[in-house]
Write a structure and sequence with these properties.
Blueprint lengths: L1 H20 L8 E3 L5 E3 L8 E10 L2 E11 L5 E6 L5 E7 L4 E6 L6 H14 L3 E3 L2 E4 L3 E8 L2 E8 L5 E8 L2 E12 L2 E9 L4 E9 L3
Antiparallel strand pairs: 1-9, 2-8, 3-4, 3-15, 4-5, 5-6, 6-7, 9-10, 10-11, 11-12, 12-13, 13-14, 14-15
Length: 211
């Protein structure tokens, strides 16, 4: 009985430490007045094809191919991933509130994988963010956008005014980091999507440049 209580206590302590360490807080920033009422992620706002080399690491399973993202309406994008040889792997249409799966390869046809891709790309392709609070540090202007339990921290480079990072949190816990390297506001040369509580990482590398 005593051993069970000790083990239970240790497990509870580990869970508590694990949960507490994931609470997200901005560091070394100062609040600034809200000059902007909203900010936008314009990286996928053009009507051209965005073509990337894609590398996905899902629980040590590597998936690679070509990813094409195209805006097909004011709020909807089509996302298609093919193998390096051109065979279609997944094809879906997505907006902030809707998701339509057109095709998925049997090896990827798992509910968990589909849900992760849906959630990740809905956040990546989300364009407008209403600002609740604003901050700054030496390098960035930082905008907090909140919707119910979902919070986004958007980091814009002070010199270029380009979006370089989005940190998505839920219930004050850091969930997903989106990192961008870009030279202009409508196209990011590299994108990385990193999950903080799951072993999932997606990297996109420019193949063809837009405009």
């Amino acid at each position: 009985m005593r051993r069970f209580l000790i083990l239970n206590f240790l497990c509870s302590l580990i869970l508590l430490l694990f949960a507490s360490c994931k609470t997200y807080q901005l560091k070394d920033v100062k609040p600034i007045s809200n000059k902007e009422k909203a900010v936008e992620n314009l990286y996928f706002s053009s009507n051209v094809d965005y073509v990337y080399k894609c590398q996905m690491d899902i629980y040590k399973n590597d998936v690679s191919g070509i990813l094409i993202i195209k805006k097909i309406s004011g709020s909807t994008h089509r996302v298609v991933m093919t193998s390096d040889f051109g065979n279609k792997m997944i094809d879906f249409e997505i907006s902030e509130n809707d998701f339509k799966l057109n095709y998925v390869l049997s090896d990827l046809d798992k509910k968990m994988v589909i849900n992760f891709l849906k959630n990740d790309f809905q956040k990546l392709l989300k364009r407008k963010f209403i600002i609740k609070e604003s901050f700054e540090n030496n390098d960035s202007n930082i905008y907090l956008s909140e919707n119910k339990k979902n919070t986004y921290y958007l980091f814009f480079n002070k010199e270029t005014n380009l979006l370089k990072k989005i940190i998505y949190t839920q219930n004050n816990k850091e969930k997903i980091d989106f990192s961008f390297e870009a030279k202009k506001p409508t196209f990011a040369e590299t994108i990385e999507i990193q999950h903080k509580d799951f072993k999932i990482n997606i990297k996109l590398f420019q193949i063809t440049e837009t405009e």
